[in-house]
Amino acid sequence: MFFALGQRSIAFLLSIYFKKIEIQGVKPVEEGPLIIAGNHPNMALDPLLILASYPRSLHFLAKSTLFSNPVANWFLRACHLIPVYRRTDRSPDQTNDKTFDEVQRLLSNRQAVTIFPEGTSVEGRTVLRLKTGAARMAFLSEERNNWSLGVKIQPVGITYAHFLGWNSGVAIAVGEPIVVDSFRELYERDPIKAVHRLTESLELALKHLSVHVDQSHLAPLINAIHQIFTRSGRISEVDTASLSRIAHAVATLAPLYPEKASEFLSRARMLLSVPISGELPRWFLLALPAIALGNLIHIIPYQVTAHLAGSLSPDEHQRGMYTFFVGTGVFFAWYALLMIVLLVIGAGFWTAFLLAGAGALGVFAGRALPLWRVFLLSLVLPSSVRALNVLQDELIDELLEYAERVGEAGTNGDGVGELIH
């Protein structure tokens, strides 16, 4: 009951935090022994997103250092977390035998276990070479049960529109489950080869389901171009196919035109630093009073969250994680304060309705915040906004022109010329 309530609460909080969460691919496996294997671009948000995507009880493998405190140990185990000892963290007398035994017990009871086989959280859009733990756990469980369990491994690729997180989109691509029994013949002949073969299949699946960038130094340009195209309305934030084509185009273009790539990055960053878009939707002016009131009610928790998350976050890639957790605490405290104020002034029965209304206004105003910023800038500097929109369109046209040029030259340009379609 405790876990189910927590699962629903996290799904609700994530639906507020992200503008759009899109589950793509096949249906998550709902029954039977299952290992869920995901890529790991964000240390804390990744497991929460997987938790919210599966309509079943899940267990998670987590690094052992999180369990060092007795209180944390009790709480994390209550949340279905299982400690795993990484080579860099464990002492000579610590092994993962108990961890493997616990996973085998859960799979024997037809439960689901989540693991991030890269072994660490990876900042950016790169899938590292996978560790073999997921494959070894799956084979061990089948072997101990005479290959009668029917264990499956389901790969899950997580792609964030951008790593600041709040009010952006995230795509969760669920892949076809890998049936462990299909590797049985190879495992019985050569267990080591079978483990590596299964791990390689899983790694290829994760690279296909997420946006994998081999050259990590190109990630800033890829992210900037993606944001320019999404802001202009050319593609959706959670359109991972278009993001993959952008990544492929940049990987092809940048070595050929390094100076131009640097110029594109500078221009994109300049444009992204200013809130611009096309024409404001018609409903915006009608909703303006509600948006203004929602922003006014929540300006203090928004500012406190932004300041604390910015101070605590070690880098941009983890900013979203800190914003989520800090924001959850700050907004709960803010609504507790609002409730006290309403009760003191005698709102009584209407307190719950007023708080619910304030919350709905806050979510609505938060979703419309980019348009609100455009609106304010348009009032102050209307000609500048029009000029910046022209510059953004020119940048997009030039990007597409270079992509077409590479495609026509036939320089490994399959699909590059069709960057966005």
Tell me about this structure.
This protein has 421 residues and is of the alpha/beta class. It has three domains: 2-209, Glycerol-3-phosphate (1)-acyltransferase; 216-273 and 385-409, no CATH class; 282-380, no CATH class. The protein contains 15 helices and eight strands. Strand 6 (152-160) and strand 7 (169-174) form a beta hairpin. The longest helix is centred in the C-terminal third of the chain and has 31 residues, at 282-312. Residues 411-417 have low confidence and may be disordered.
Task: Describe the SSE topology.
Elements: H1 2-17, E1 20-25, E2 34-38, H2 45-53, E3 58-63, H3 70-78, E4 81-84, H4 97-108, E5 112-115, H5 133-144, E6 152-160, E7 169-174, E8 178-179, H6 184-189, H7 191-209, H8 219-231, H9 240-256, H10 258-272, H11 282-312, H12 319-344, H13 351-367, H14 369-380, H15 382-409
Parallel strand pairs: 1-7, 2-5, 2-6, 3-4, 3-5
Antiparallel strand pairs: 6-7, 6-8
Helix pairs in contact: 1-2, 4-5, 5-7, 8-9, 8-10, 9-10, 10-15, 11-12, 11-13, 14-15
